Structure formats: C-alpha cells, structure tokens
Amino acid sequence: QDCDGLIVRSATKVTAEVLQAAERLQVVGRAGTGVDNVDVEAATRKGVLVMNTPTGNSLSAAELTCGMILCLARQIPQASASMKEGKWDRKKYMGMELNGKTLGVLGLGRIGREVATRMQAFGMKTIGYDPIITPEVSATFGVEQLPLEQIWPRCDFITVHTPLLPSTMGLLNDSTFAKCRRGVQVVNCARGGIVDEGALLRALRESPHRVPDFCASVSLSVKHGCVGSGHVHSLVGSHCTSCSFSQVNGQALSKAFAPQTKPWIALARALGMVLHAVGKQAQGSVQVCTLGTPLQEAGSYLTPAVAAGMLVGGAQKEVTLVNALLLAQEAGLKVTTTHDNAAPEPDSSAGSLQVALQGTQHRATGTVQGSTPVLRELNGAIFEQPAPLVGPVLIYRAKASDPSTLPALTGLLGKVGVQLQSYHSSGVVAREQWSVVGLSAPLSDLSELKPCVTEVFQLHL
Description:
Helix content is 31%, strand content 23%. The protein folds into 4 domains: 5-56 and 232-247, Rossmann fold (3-Layer(aba) Sandwich); 58-224, Rossmann fold, CATH 3.40.50.720; 251-384, CATH 3.30.1330.90; 391-461, ACT domain (Alpha-Beta Plaits, 2-Layer Sandwich), CATH 3.30.70. The protein has a 6-stranded mixed sheet. Strands 6-5-4-7-8 form a 5-stranded parallel sheet. A 4-stranded mixed sheet has the order 1-2-3-9, covered by helices on one side. The chain has helices at 16-21, 40-46, 58-74, 76-84, 110-120, 135-140, 148-151, 174-179, 197-206, 230-241, 253-256, 262-279, 299-311, 324-330, 405-416; strands at residues 5-8, 27-30, 49-52, 102-106, 125-129, 144-145, 157-160, 185-188, 246-247, 284-291, 333-340, 352-357, 363-369, 372-378, 381-388, 392-399, 420-425, 432-439, 455-460. Residues 209-221 and 223-244 have low confidence and may be disordered. Helix 3 (58-74) crosses helix 5. The two termini are 31 Å apart. By secondary structure, the protein is of the alpha/beta class. Belongs to the D-isomer specific 2-hydroxyacid dehydrogenase family. One of its GO terms (molecular function) is phosphoglycerate dehydrogenase activity. This is D-3-phosphoglycerate dehydrogenase. Residues 67-207 form the D-isomer specific 2-hydroxyacid dehydrogenase NAD-binding domain.
C-alpha cells in the first residue's frame, strides 16, 4: 500500500484489486516483455504508468528458438534419448538439412528479426508476416512479407513471435494446420495461447501425413523460462535499474520531461483548459491540429495533454497523461488529431497548436517562444503580442470601447495585494476584445470585475 513503484516478473499478477489497494502506486515495471500479467486498462484508468523491458531477453529468446528449430530438423532430443537407452538408430534419426528450406516468421519485431537473420546463416529462405512492420523494413533484414494465406502452404518451418492478443489467440488452429504443407514443423517460443494446442494434437493424431511421424510420439517442449539464462536475468535486472524501460500505456510521458517537448505539452494542457473555460463544457468533439513540420509527430503526446487540460476541475480525479484519453472518452469527450505541414506566420519555423470545440466557434491557438507557451488566438481574436500561459492567469472578454475595465481590474488587484505581472489584449472582433492578465496569485473573488466584462475566468497554468 505504501509503495510508489512495483517491479514484477511474469509470475506476479498485478490485478485491478492490487492496483486499487496500492494507493500511492505510480509505475509498474515488468522485468521482461509480455504484460499479460498486468491489468493495463485498470492501471491506465488509475493513471499508473506500465513499462516493460522488451530488449532484455530478446537475443536469448531468439537463440532458444534457433535451437528448437535445429532440434526439430536433426531430431536431436529423440536421437539423444535413443542413445541413452542403449540403441543405435542411425537411419531412424537422420533428420533433414535446413539449407534451402523455408522458414515462416510470424511477428517481425525484435525477436522475430533476430531469428530470421540467424537462420538465414543456415541457408534458409525466410518469409513472414507482421501487421505493423512494413514490407520495406522487413526486406532490410531479409524477410519477404506475405499474407498469412500464402505463408501456410509454403513453409517447412513456422516460428511464432507475436504478443498474446485477442487477434493472435489461436492463430495456428485447425484451419491453418490444414493449409500447411506436409511435414511442416512449428516452434512457439512466445505465448502458449497463440497455438491452439487442441488443434495441434488433432493434427498430430488425425493427419499424420501433414506432420513428421516422430512428432506423433515425441513432443519437444521447454518452459518459457528457458529464455531467461542467468546472464539474461542479470541483463533484465540491469535494464530495470538503469531506466531501460519502454512505456506500455504512457508514451506521452516519454516526451513530458524532454527540454524540447516539455513546453509544448504545457501549451497543449493550457489550451485544453482555455477551451474548456470558454466552451463551458467537457463533452463533445475536440479537434487537435498540429501545424508546421516540426510538430509532424507531436500529435501522439500533445493530444493526451489537451484532453488532460479539458478535464481539469471535472469529476475525474488525478488526470494524467497516462489516463487522460481514457477518462475523456468515458466523460463523453472525443479528441481527434490532424496535422498540417503549413503553419501560419510568424510561427512557421517553430510550429503552432490549435484546439477547437467542433460545432461551435470556440478555438484557441498557441505556440512556444523559447520555453514559454503563449496564446496566439482565441475565438478568432488575434494577439499581436502573444500572451504567456504560465502561472495564475485571468482571462476576460470586454467591449473594446469600455474604458472602465482596466481601472476596475487594477483597483481590485490593489485591494487584495495581488500584483499584475503581464497584460496582453487581442485585436477587436465584433467590438469586443480578449485580455490575458498574468497575476502573482489567484483572485478569490471576481464579483467586482464581472459588471465590467462580458465573461471572465481564471486558470492556474
């Protein structure tokens, strides 16, 4: 209950109940690749960051896979067992050469590509499938990508390196085994559920012409922990302690503390708060648009920040970059992202960010000057001198011709001892203009100012 971080291996289950009981928990580190033992959705909802060490045992898993392929091809376990029984069955366990055989690699991530390159050294032709890796990328490490329907009948060996997801559960099943060529041999050093074991058993028993005869009586199997040699356990542990984690559910956090992106995240959150204040709602559809080439890849981390800003002050507790999009969705707020390489002057070199409440006229645009997030435009009113969005900020809309607003504001500030630190006004739109006032401290009562303005609100940015 008192821990801030939790590091686990595969045997420890981090359930929703565990997450609920750990009130201070901020991060779960999985020492290994798979996170199916962690309730990622429950962690995300609570704002708990989930991380893993995907590279820690990649080479070890790849080497184990290659060893399994060699054992199947040369029938090493069977020959060894026969020798130990005092037999000399040379002809029975001659096996086959790997040279010229075709290996199908399902999943071309870190482990899959390492297996492919190693088995290419044995003269194997490598084909594969991955819904994320592009054919151009897989071609760089010698794998020809094909649709799954074309892979099954072409392979002498199939090896699986995908995570266990609803889409990969039972990937190898009765239907796929029926499409495989005679004598196909399957290696699964990933997750057990990817291969339908019942279907595999039926293929072994009912269709011996499709699998080697020796497989019907001998099963080659090892526990998944065999990928974790003593060196690998040490390596994974060093990754845990040296911050060599990868984010599973909080990719935006990887950008939150980088000097070049931190002010942009602050801007996105501030614009979300401004849009919520002027729109007076945290529901509907919000369009986030990144403008300019420098922000071409920024939508992935700026969008959660906008959502977090929109939810400030709502019923949701502890809104973070980890859970902002999930909580926004549950609150009825849909946040979408677009990008345009063209950014308006004078922000074309740095880029700018625009957020808009669809179906309304409410929108806000800002940029970053130096390390300071600034407001460029609000509901069509342009700030020729951009207004800083930092600290306590008072924002109001008033008639441009009304000379009483500023004296009323300065008089109120003098009464309560709050200093005016900055003052920026927009251009006039429909005879009104917006003003953004930086304060040394928030004001506790705005009643004296309200008669002089059309609308007014405070934000602490």
